[in-house]
Amino acid sequence: MMEHVERLLGDERLRVDTTRGRRPVTTMFRAVEAGDHAVELKRVMADAGKHDRELQAKMPTGRWMEVTLSQKKMLVMREEVGKIQVVCVSPIKALLNGAEPQPLTGSEVQKVLTQLAMENRGSEVPTTVVLVSTGGFTIEAAEHAERRADRTLILAQPNDSGGWRVSGPVETKALVDLFDPEAETAKRQRVRAYIDENAVDMLSGGIATDKVAAKTQLPLQLVEAELKSYAKDRPGMQARRLDGRIVLFREGVTGVPDPPSGDENMPFLERVKALFSRKGDGEKKVTFLSERRAALTQQQDRIYEDLNHLEKKESELREQFKTSTSALTKRRLTSQLLQFRKDIERRQQMLGVISQQVNVVSTHLHNLELTKQGSGQKLPDADEITADAVKAEEVLAELQTSNEIAQTVGGVASGGLSDEEQALFEELEREAAGDKAADALPKAGESMADAQRRVAQQQAAREQASRQTTGAVEDPIPDIDEPPPVPIRERGRGQAEPG
């Protein structure tokens, strides 16, 4: 919210009350002062016995901002003409105790306004106050949002759908809408996100604007406009007004738009007859049946909601009958219960009729889609399939022959020895293995340990001979340290005499 207000200070649409009337803030000098109540938060946490820095970093600090607006006076001096104050209030104690945050009441709002008035004592300029409550406001508190000569109060609170709810005086609606931190594009994206999450509802029915508006907590006009834009951007989608509400639904499987035929002004029965009497007009039939199915589904949803309310009311009357002690009251409750049961039965019968209609429409729509899908694809006939199968068998036979030849050639290349060479190679391998086994056996007068030591020495000697053959010479390791040789120019000098 604070960042949004900082951006608004450079927006020429922001017009607030001043001593010289409503003026844009961009035409005045702006002195911004901001701060928070972090010290007060630390004191409250200490009183509650919670000395946790990580928890303190997550807690709201109660930020505030004060913008003083002024204009030039007598070419040199400046005169204060108005103020904008933004205050954030959070239920700190409830958050620390893990309790559910409660909305701000009317008395608490009045207390905050009184505190601001005490701080502005001596200033006679109009003030625009934006009070932000992270816990929300009660209905009583919302009544304080009004416009007076000295003050205009705007209330802002976050909602459960991820947006903001900003309320204020009716005469300053344009100003109130500006203080909504959520941009217009973000609101439209939330509507589209809800449609994408509930896309399964459009397979058998549709999505109505009132449900989207209730879920996203956005204005109905914005939701209707976005549903129409959504249908316009995606082929195969339609957004039409059914029973007084805009409903978004699927038009069919192909999604090809139809040119206007002028049949929209025809009566309903004549339109049905015209649709199903003509041949080759499957797209219009699919569109009409999809629209009809969406309308019937919306009727189903409304009847389900009515049944839910009736059942709840019936349960309440039953509880009243159990707790009542007066015979007259019980008779009255009995009459009401009987009437509610009849209403429930009537709506259940209506549900049965609508369900049958939906089943018939869905079946007919499915048949049309199957017919269109089958006739729209050019498939080969039996003769073409047989001819292609014969060609495929011939190709497979040639491939099998080539594969066998390749395996034969690959075996010879990988071996690299003829039959005689292979036999001699195996004989030499057996002789070498026998010599190694014979050398490993102890000779006469020799123990097993001596035999193993002898074999190891022979192996080391063979390795040394192999290295010498390949030219690898190892540097000898001197056993003792020798002094460096005396330089030639020092060899002719005599020895020093003792002393």
Q: Can you walk through the features of this model?
A:
The protein contains 17 helices and eleven strands. The protein is an alpha+beta fold and 499 residues long. The chain folds into three domains: 2-181, no CATH class; 183-250, Arc Repressor Mutant, subunit A; 265-374. Strand 4 and strand 5 form a beta hairpin. Helix 10 packs across helix 11 (220-233). It starts with a helix and ends in a 29-residue tail after the last helix.
User: Mean of the pLDDT scores?
Assistant: 78
SSE arrangement, N to C = HEEEHHEEHHEHEEHHHEHHEEHHHHHH
Question: How much of the polypeptide forms β-strand, as a percent range?
Answer: 5-15%
Strand order in the largest sheet: 3-4-5-6-7-8
Low-confidence stretches: 253-264, 476-480
Largest sheet: 6 strands, mixed
**Gap between N and C termini, in Å?**
97 Å
- Radius of gyration over C-alpha positions, nearest whole angstrom: 46 Å
Observed structural traits:
499 residues; Arc Repressor Mutant, subunit A; 3 domains; alpha+beta; three-stranded antiparallel beta sheet
Quick take:
This protein has 499 residues and is of the alpha+beta class. It has 17 helices and eleven strands.
Helix and strand topology:
Elements: H1 2-8, E1 15-18, E2 21-24, E3 29-35, H2 38-47, H3 53-58, E4 64-73, E5 77-89, H4 92-97, H5 106-119, E6 127-133, H6 139-142, E7 151-158, E8 164-167, H7 173-178, H8 184-197, H9 201-204, E9 207-208, H10 209-216, H11 220-233, E10 237-242, E11 245-250, H12 268-277, H13 282-323, H14 327-376, H15 382-415, H16 419-440, H17 448-470
